Amino acid sequence: MLRRSAISLLLVLISVCAGARTRPHYGGTLRVEIEGDPWQQPNGIARRLVYDGLVRLDSSGFVQPAMATDWKAENNNHRWQFKLRPGVHFSDGTPVTSVNVVASLNASCASNCPWGAVRALGGAVVFTSDAPMPVLPALLANDAYLIALPNPNPSSDDRLLGSGPYQTAGFANNVLKLTANENCWAGRPFADGIEIRVHRAIRDQWLDLSVGRADLVEVPAEQLRQAQQNHMRLLTSGPVTLLGLEVADTGALASSMLRGAISQAVDRSALSNVIYQKQGEVTASLLPAEISGYSFLFPTNRNLNKAHELRGGIAPPTLPISAPGDPAIQLAAQRIALNLREAGFNSQVTTGAQRGDLNLRAFALECRDGQSCMEELLRMEGGTAGFAETAPGPAALYKVEREFLDRKTLIPLLYLRRSWGASGRVRDLHLDVAGTPDLADASLEDAP
Hints:
Layout: H1 2-22, E1 29-33, H2 47-50, E2 55-57, E3 63-65, E4 68-74, E5 79-84, H3 98-108, E6 117-121, E7 124-128, H4 136-140, E8 149-150, E9 160-161, E10 166-172, E11 175-180, E12 193-197, H5 202-210, E13 216-219, H6 224-229, E14 234-247, H7 256-265, H8 268-275, E15 281-282, H9 289-292, H10 304-311, E16 319-322, H11 327-342, E17 347-350, E18 358-364, H12 370-380, H13 394-405, E19 410-422, E20 426-427, E21 443-444
Parallel strand pairs: 1-12, 16-17, 16-18
Antiparallel strand pairs: 2-3, 4-5, 5-7, 6-7, 8-9, 10-11, 11-12, 13-19, 14-18, 14-19, 15-19, 20-21
Helix pairs in contact: 7-10, 12-13
């Protein structure tokens, strides 16, 4: 009996010690390195640390409260009302009101918004539209609609104020410093601060991670295999970035036959195997297979004979392919230009921001359900899906997608994942639905 009691006491002590070891620690500074701009849209790594949205998406893609506590649809989804959370303040102490929320939304979306009009109504924000808005809450979770307040004393590093878990503390020597927002409505984050070193080459990021100078670094899709071979501790999202070729429907490419020829000429498998080292999911569908379930209905194989047939001997002028962005996208554009020359087109890759007849573009998706993903993608292309009801079936989704893709103004090519390398001192780190690290919930093993 005494022996059993001693064993039970020992097990209790072990479980208590284990719990103490696994409990998140407060304190410390988390060091992040990136190639680009932490404020870029969409999905700049600093944006959701400093700003909040009316709502957010959880890891499964379900809409959850944020600055709004509840919402309801009226008039067959033509009107939505979002009730604001009371007692929320921006980092300078300014109360969050429906008036400044509306001002922020109007500043972030001047045209082609998911709503027709937005106005303040007491402690609520009201959206109205002539067309139904069945998935407006999910769309409002997007990065583009985070709420910010113009800083009355703006500087180069602190132009806007937010109500998120961190606030800006300075920018110098390519390092953005964030400090914990002690008064954040969602609670104080675990790390005292975050330092984001910007414009850092991938090779330098990886070196800093290996010697303990960085805690979180980027892993481009085309280098994921190398990172795995290096036994890097990785976090990888689902397919969240669509690589697509935009095709103008005016000028030299006004003919749908020529646009169809371009679609048939592109070799998606070569892009995946050669440029992205087999880390790209070949697709001719707007939605990834895990969301739609029907992407296999869109053929992905190249058909060079069909491309020549559709071109019909027409020799349009040189087609510029705009490919702003990272080196992998530029290499992919060069590969596409080679495909087109084999189909009888003359094309040339340009790296400037000016849009041409052809534009190779990465579309970042912040969604997990087919309807909001479709709405999001088509809105990026200047249109809308036009769903009247919530949760249409696969047949309705397929019909909308088929009608859009038949225009041949956007040619889906690959779906890519986002990956990050993390040091062993970072705990409780996960990615959001767009593949961006959720650093607000992360803690440091060696924090005091």
